[in-house]
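ok so heres the complex, two chains, lmk if somethin looks off
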Amino acid sequence: MGEDTDFDVIIIGCGMAGMACAAQLLKEGVEGDRILVVDRGEPIGGKNMSGGVLWGRELDDLADIFPNWEMDNPGIERYINHKKIGFLSEDDAFIIEGKFASWDGIGGTKEPSMRTGWSVLRGRTDAWFAEKLEEAGVFIMPGIKIDQLHIEDLDHTSYDPRDLTTPSEDSGKGNAQKWRIDNQPEIAGKVRNGRICGIVQDGEVMTSQVVVIAEGSNSVLTRSYGFDSMIHAQDRHGMLLGVKEVIHLGEDVINSRFGCFAGDEERPPSGLAMEGALAIYDNMAEKAWEDYPETAGLVPRAGGWLYTNRDTLSIGVVIQLDSLPQGIHTYDMLAAYKAHSAIAPLLEGGEVVEYGGHLVPEYGLDRMPTKLVRDGAVVIGDAAGLVYSNGAVIQGQNYSIHSGKLAGKVIAKCVASGNCNSSTLGQYKKDLDASYVMRDLKRFKTTAKFLSDDANYTWVPKFMGTMFNRVVREIGEEKITVEKQAFRLRKEMRRADKKTRKGMGLLNLLRLGRMGRKL
Amino acid sequence: MTDKVAIGLFEYDVKNGLGLIGYNVDEHEHAHIVVETSKCNDCSHMMCVWGCPAQCYNFRDQGLEEMKFQYEDCVECGTCFIMCDQGAVSWNHPRGGFGITYTYG
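and the predicted structre for the whole thing:
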């Protein structure tokens, strides 16, 4: 059975998707020593970063390989039973908060009792997953970057893999779609369409029946090997940048400051997941518009988050890259968020222990890589753009695990039958389409549009904050009904700003409402 | 810190942030990102400068006449590749064993 290849399956990337795929292959009966997982991080997890909360119980299915993962994995920090959704404007914060006993997972609640999300630190989670896979016999090679795939009938020395990622001389001027490899059309054709049958590492070929690309959100291989076009990959729409800090506070401080359960033999400690829309960049934007009039009027659309880990906080902002005006550095947006009056007190006394940045491929349906399957290869996880957000939730790690599992099931069958063509591997795409991952992405097609609407980062948070302020305050003014208050505030805001006038127009409100209903 | 936040402009001490990440910097000839900086002169937007969370790109924002790129502080996020539409950025991951290592992630 396939002994003429070095491995049955080579998985590139040991993140959530890659490790889940390897674990599923083991479950389906593929021998551990027929699976190779390579990752460019050393140790495994060293390149990996998420916001990060892992939502959903996807790991339960893999408990054979990852036993007692919730308690034993050192990167599973706290389970989430406390959720906040915020609307932050410069002066105010309007925050919706929920604390759910059913999320404690200890029974006695009317809603299904289960722990459903965990704050994670990927540097630690992924190292543990890799260790468990290794114990099950899988070959894990850390510190290995793959920049060349082995293509059938193509001598890998006949082209320089750097030509796949280097713009050609005549490319540019707003058009970066020509790459050096395009000057050798015959090779380019094979690279993008030929059968993939292994990897090339340091000039040495390692063959397999199937190569799984699980490289993550910034997948050079999917671009280089024609799963996704370069120009498509370079589009800013739907691409988000997360800029994050990990801040050490100490376990006791977090428990008392955020009202968390401290954890026991059976349960990890509990914690908070907070996300919010940010309308706090007015002054930064105005200054930027003055200095760089070319993008005057462009409002940075960003969300902020804060998650509690065991003794640290994960805090950051996620920025829609097509909305970034000239004149604003992304990291300065993090500083503004940290300084907000609703956030700063939560961080007090903390020491920043890590900083980082990571792309989030929130492509939505029409922006996913054009191909997920080729003869001898499949793409899973972030590399396939499987991220969903509606503002209230943002998910990707669970989709990654799910896609890895689906791919693992199909690949095991294909490997057993010896037929790993795109037609048989294509079952993975069909299974993915039928799964909740793609059904979610399809059902919530309009949310991407809703989330990229300026309103949610300008007048909506301001309106909500000021409304709440006025409704609940007592400063010796005459009380009016909420309805009247809303009309009055709308009128004031429309008068103050031309853009807001348009944004709060009745037609636009109707349009937003229609999209909002479909969240 | 709990004082009323001054509404205005914020600057993040990015160099301090970057100092908290573990790096194993590869030699120059193996730089994972290569920028053809001559193409930057005609670029009107410098979106790489604004997007990059590691301040690897320095240009007119820092009062420089020419684009100055350094790969050493790169956090390997890929933002510059997305932002550049001038065909100036050749982007790849660092060689195995090189680049950043997150301890938290």
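quick notes: The longest helix of chain A spans residues 397-417. thats all i got rn
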